[in-house]
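Fill in residues.
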């Protein structure tokens, strides 16, 4: 080994001895420091004794220990590389050094924490709230970065102390708010906004809260009160505002005069400007970067305030006629002034829905209001009674296949309010012809909306009558069809002229939909009448397979059915058109004929006396039913089973020879109304089994097979 190597090896050995000697001494010193710091913290925060005055001295000792630690650390790093395998004691001491370094850092942080707590108390007493926030933030950062150390339970005590300080701080700021601004709601319908004159305390408190929590909870509560108790009444009610002051405070007193009535828009605007100028003068503090107390308030309420002013104030100023429209520029100027105040005070910003833009769009607002009024007026017309009616259309023409020309509306009755409604719609369409394109479209759509609304609204609003009164059901049917007919005329008269202004302009959809709805409601009633016929006839004692005599209930039920149709004639024959009336009365009469025919045909045995009585019952129908129709001779056009009912009556009262002659080898009237098997069954129930009957039955069967 060279002399240089021996010297270096000797130096390393000396350093290792030095480290091994100093580490235990440093550990002993650290334990002493630890005990002193813990005792100091416990005295202040656990045992509540006097504040420790040795904190600075302890901190200096910690710093000196850190310096000693650094020296040992450097030496250990130098020698550990070559002594790694040979000096176990040195390695243990190096590990001990790392542990000592960690504990020493914890103790140093405790010393800093104690200083920060004292600094917070001092700054809070001086009302330097923004400085308090910085101290608390730093304190929290240090406290919660310290890893667990089972020998320092006092850390948990300090963390609890931090939480108490934080809550104490927030409560203190709340008290500052309470002392400086308050909204008092009194039972005499007065509200007082009380603000302390300009001072640095409230400014510092708001800055501190905003920096600490990113919101100002206590100001949020004041904003909510301001909105509900001041701003909403200013817009929605008749109120007065009074300002007052003394040496320390200023007041704005709101007195509600009539909560149900609104003030004129000028009064509302004036009061709004008074409120916000009062706040701007007495409560305009800097809260943060580019943020003031009023812009903070604005962030919360600006969009709701804009909506409140537009919906509950400006909307009421929209004119209803051209004369008022020409004077509306005054409202626009007043709105401009109000918006300037709201922007200057930072209540509004550039992104807020502009009340001036709303007011300036008066042409659209004007036409929208008129359309709303038209729709409201139309709704009131729809509420009128349906039974107040008038006759319209062209009379029935017996020489025309349809009873009238295709372009004509058949004579019937409609509700007078339909004429009134159509007159309103026609006036709107005339107005659309002379309006600007945008307004023309809005007016056209309004007419369309009125027409679409008619069947839905009327069928619901008058639903009780439309479910029970046949006259009103018929009128509603006619009303819908008359409107549909008129719409097709308007396609030519108005839509052809509006088509150049609008993308689509016709009433084809509405004209198609109205009759569909009308038919559905009317058909439901007809179905109900047919069902009623079935229910009445179910009690006629004709439901068996045999019959020995005709029950008195049979004639009674038939008469009841006829009477029911006679009542319908009373209310329908002057309401419905010729064809519609006869068609639907015919369907009901046909259901009665079907009941009687089916009941008779299904009997297996009909005595002669019963047959005579059944003929008498059929005669009731044959005599009274034709009178239900506008022209009794046209009953066969509307009652498909009318001829068959006559033939049943004939068979019941005829001989076998007469029946055979009327069959006429499958070419007679009987053959036109009866299937062979059906007629054969009726013959079997009426006549005894004889050679003549058998021959006739065979002939009828053979004829039907050949045919």
């Amino acid at each position: 080994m060279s002399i240089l190597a021996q010297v270096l090896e000797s130096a390393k050995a000396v350093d290792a001895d030095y480290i091994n000697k100093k580490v235990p001494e440093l550990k002993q010193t650290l334990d002493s420091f630890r005990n002193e710091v813990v005792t100091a913290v416990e005295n202040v925060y656990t045992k509540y004794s006097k504040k420790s005055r040795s904190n600075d001295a302890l901190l200096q000792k910690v710093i000196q220990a850190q310096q000693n630690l650094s020296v040992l650390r450097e030496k250990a790093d130098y020698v550990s590389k070559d002594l790694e395998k040979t000096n176990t004691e040195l390695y243990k001491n190096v590990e001990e050094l790392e542990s000592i370094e960690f504990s020493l850092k914890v103790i140093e942080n405790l010393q800093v924490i104690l200083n920060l707590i004292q600094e917070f108390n001092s700054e809070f007493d001086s009302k330097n709230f923004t400085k308090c926030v910085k101290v608390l933030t730093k304190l929290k950062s240090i406290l919660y970065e310290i890893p667990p150390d089972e020998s320092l339970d006092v850390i948990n005590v300090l963390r609890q102390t931090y939480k108490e300080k934080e809550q104490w701080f927030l409560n203190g700021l709340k008290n500052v708010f309470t002392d400086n601004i308050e909204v008092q709601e009194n039972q005499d319908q007065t509200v007082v906004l009380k603000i302390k004159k300009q001072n640095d305390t409230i400014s510092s408190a708001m800055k501190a809260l905003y920096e600490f929590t990113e919101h100002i909870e206590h100001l949020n509560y004041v904003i909510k009160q301001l909105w509900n108790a001041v701003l909403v009444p200013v817009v929605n009610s008749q109120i007065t505002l009074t300002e007052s002051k003394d040496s320390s405070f200023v007041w704005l007193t709101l007195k509600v005069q009539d909560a149900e009535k609104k003030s004129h828009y000028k009064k509302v605007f004036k009061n709004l400007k008074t409120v916000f100028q009062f706040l701007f003068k007495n409560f305009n503090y800097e809260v943060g970067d580019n943020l003031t107390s009023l812009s903070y308030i604005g962030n919360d309420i600006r969009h709701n305030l804009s909506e409140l002013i537009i919906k509950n104030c400006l909307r009421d100023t929209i004119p209803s006629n051209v004369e008022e429209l020409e004077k509306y520029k005054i409202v626009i100027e007043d709105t401009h002034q109000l918006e300037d105040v709201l922007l200057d005070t930072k209540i509004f910003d550039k992104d807020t829905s502009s009340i001036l833009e709303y007011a300036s769009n008066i042409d659209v607002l004007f036409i929208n209001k008129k359309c709303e009024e038209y729709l409201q007026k139309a709704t009131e017309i729809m509420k009128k009674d349906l039974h107040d009616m008038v006759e319209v259309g062209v009379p029935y023409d017996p020489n025309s296949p349809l009873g009238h020309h295709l372009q004509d509306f058949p004579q019937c009755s409609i509700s007078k309010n339909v004429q009134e409604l159509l007159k309103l719609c026609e006036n709107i369409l005339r107005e659309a012809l002379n309006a600007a394109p945008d307004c023309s479209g809005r007016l056209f759509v309004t007419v369309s909306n009125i027409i679409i609304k008619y069947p839905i609204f009327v069928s619901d609003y008058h639903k009780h009558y439309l479910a029970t009164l046949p006259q009103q059901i018929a009128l509603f049917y006619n009303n819908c069809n008359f409107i549909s007919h008129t719409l097709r005329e308007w396609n030519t008269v108005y839509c052809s002229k509006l088509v150049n202004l609008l993308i689509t302009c016709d009433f084809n959809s509405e004209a198609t939909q109205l009759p569909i709805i009308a038919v559905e409601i009317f058909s439901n009633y007809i179905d109900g009448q047919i069902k009623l016929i079935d229910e009445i006839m179910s009690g006629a004692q004709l439901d068996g397979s045999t019959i020995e005599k005709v029950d008195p209930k049979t004639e009674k039920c038939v008469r009841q059915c006829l009477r029911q149709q006679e009542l319908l004639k009373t209310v329908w024959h002057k309401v419905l058109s010729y064809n519609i009336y006869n068609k639907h009365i015919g369907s009901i009469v046909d259901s009665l004929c079907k009941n009687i025919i089916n009941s008779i045909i299904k009997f297996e045995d009909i005595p002669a006396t019963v047959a005579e009585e059944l003929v008498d019952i059929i005669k009731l129908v044959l005599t009274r039913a034709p009178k239900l129709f506008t022209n009794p001779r046209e009953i066969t056009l509307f009652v498909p089973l009318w001829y068959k009912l006559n033939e049943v009556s004939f068979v019941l009262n005829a001989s076998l020879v007469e029946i055979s002659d009327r069959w006429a080898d499958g070419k007679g009237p009987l053959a036109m109304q009866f299937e062979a098997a059906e007629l054969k069954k009726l013959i079997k129930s009426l006549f005894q089994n004889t050679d003549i009957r058998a021959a006739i039955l065979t002939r009828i069967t053979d004829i039907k097979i050949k045919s």
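The CA atoms of residues 178 and 218 lie 9 Å apart.
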